[in-house]
Amino acid sequence: MLYINGEWINTDNQMDVINPATGEIIQTITVGGRAEKKRLLAQEQHSKLGKRQLGMNVVIT
After folding, report:
1. Which residue in 17, 37, 48, 58 has the most C-beta neighbors within 10 A?
2. What residue segments make up the domains of the chain, in order of their start?
3. Are the C-beta atoms of 32 and 13 separated by less than 8 Å?
4. Which key words are in the record (predicted)?
């Protein structure tokens, strides 16, 4: 599960974390796909607009 915009999102995208010294799988983690990326970027855009309306400077690196 991923935590985006205050809520947990289910996704089937997973990746194994491998110890390079032993080749052993340490853990399996959830990663975002294209849909999660679009959702995150849309939320960021919405957040930037809200901050501009409040007169706050927004810098994204």
Report:
1. 48
2. 2-53
3. yes
4. Oxidoreductase
Tell me the per-residue pLDDT of 21-53, one tens digit each, with 9 for 90 and over.
Answer: 999 999 999 888 888 888 888 888 777 665 566
Residues 27 and 2: beta-carbon distance below 8 Å = no
Q: Tokens 């390079």 correspond to what residue? A: 20
Beta carbons of 35 and 42 less than 8 angstroms apart: no
Tokens of residue 2, six digits: 């991923």
Q: How far apart are CA 16 and CA 26, in angstroms?
A: 7
Cβ–Cβ < 8 Å for 32, 2: yes
Side chain identity at 42, as an amino acid letter?
A
